[in-house]
Amino acid sequence: MATFTEHYDLIKPGTDDYYDVADFNENMDAIDTQLYQAEQDMAGVSEKIGNPGDEGEDTLFGLLNPGNQPEEKADFYRYSKTEIKKQIQNWKPNLSGSTTFYGKLTTFRAEKNGTVYVKWTSSDTANGEFYIYHKAPLSILEAPDQSELGSSIPKGLQQEDFCYYHINYVYTPNKGNPTTFEWVFPVIAGIDYTFMWYASSASSLYLNEFSLGYTDTKEA
After folding, report:
1. Span 176-198, pLDDT tens digits
2. Which of 98, 161, 194, 217 is in Cβ range 3.0-4.6 Å of 136 for a Cys bridge?
3. Using a CB cutoff of 8 Å and minimum separation of 24, what contacts does 147-152 make?
């Protein structure tokens, strides 16, 4: 006797039932409908996020634009360190004779739609790249914070659609004085964001501070 799957009511013929093409086609139609709906939903999420520099209020980037914030709140999204979720200080990775480095900083799950604030202070000598992935292989998700992942791109991160943000920046030696960068990024509820550090042409690496703050936009 046939039974049905829990979520989409797909037909599961019993061991004594005869094969029925109609059952097979009905299952395929149900799967096709659900996959298409999921694809449309993801496209809708992308449209709601928008792009850096949006000025309107119909995307998350636009809402985070300082021009759309009350005057007393405008600088909050750029400089606030409210709700610090992760901080790494005084990390000196081992280059092991290489001039390139991949490292995992942390993985953060957004509790609600909101914004994350990143402060980065370093006194190393390298061409730096900062990545945020909204998808990552399990091996990366389960890797501990502050992991040294070697000199080649970790397996599973080659797919560009896994990368949520990518920023290039250059550390300019300043007589040993640290250089500070600050960024703000919108995040979507329920997604794990993995923060990665890549450096090339590195003669030395030293991370003075990585601070990750988070605030729900509804509270701002």
Report:
1. 578 888 888 888 889 999 999 98
2. 194
3. 147/103, 147/104, 148/93, 148/94, 148/101, 148/103, 149/102, 149/103, 149/104, 150/101, 150/102, 151/96, 151/98, 151/100, 151/101, 151/102, 152/100, 152/102
